[in-house]
Amino acid sequence: MTIAVGDKLPAATFKEKTADGPVEVTTEHLFKGKRVVLFAVPGAFTPTCSLNHLPGYLENRDAILSRGIDDIAVVAVNDLHVMGAWATSSGGMGKIHFLSDWNAAFTKALGMDVDLSAGTLGIRSKRYSMLVEDGVVKVLNLEDSPGQATVSGAAAMLEQL
């Protein structure tokens, strides 16, 4: 079953590489009492994710935060080191959270997992964005195609805030 508007996010623990080293980030810590924009990508460094999806959120970070958003996070089924390298190379380190869902536990719990083995990627996340308020999904934007980042992009999210 896929998560829907009005559902509470499942408990999960992510890994995040910060300037001070690796840390664990729980859903409770990230979402409790906060308004957070979360978006997911099929893979760090992949073309649509790196050239379109992530840059939109980095470029619109201040505009998103100015609308009463406490934090922005991106999640992918990649390991901690890949997500850390992506954060550094994109200039996003310290600006948004780059969350490693290394074993796809969170992604599977949301019902957002997709098998992209035909493209040599294995189990990954569908591309989506959501507005989460105090752990509850208020807005959910799911892309029809993993190669597109339109309905889940930053511009679409800004219109919904």
Chart the SSEs and their pairings.
Elements: E1 13-18, E2 21-26, H1 27-31, E3 35-40, H2 47-59, H3 61-65, E4 71-76, H4 80-90, E5 97-100, H5 105-110, E6 113-115, E7 123-125, E8 128-133, E9 136-142, H6 154-160
Parallel strand pairs: 3-4, 4-5
Antiparallel strand pairs: 1-2, 3-8, 6-7, 8-9
Count of β-strands: 9
Placed side by side, the strands forming the largest sheet appear as 5-4-3-8-9
Order of helices and strands: EEHEHHEHEHEEEEH
Count of DSSP-assigned helices: 6
Features:
single chain, 161 residues, alpha/beta, five-stranded mixed β-sheet, 29% strand
Fold and architecture overview:
With 161 residues, the protein is an alpha/beta fold. 29% of the residues lie in helices and 29% in strands. It is built from six helices and nine strands; from the N terminus they run ββαβααβαβαββββα. It has a five-stranded mixed beta sheet. Strands 1-2 form a two-stranded antiparallel ribbon. Strand 6 and strand 7 (123-125) form a beta hairpin. The protein is globular, with a radius of gyration of 14 Å.
Task: Provide a quick synopsis of the model.
Helices cover 29% and strands 29% of the residues.
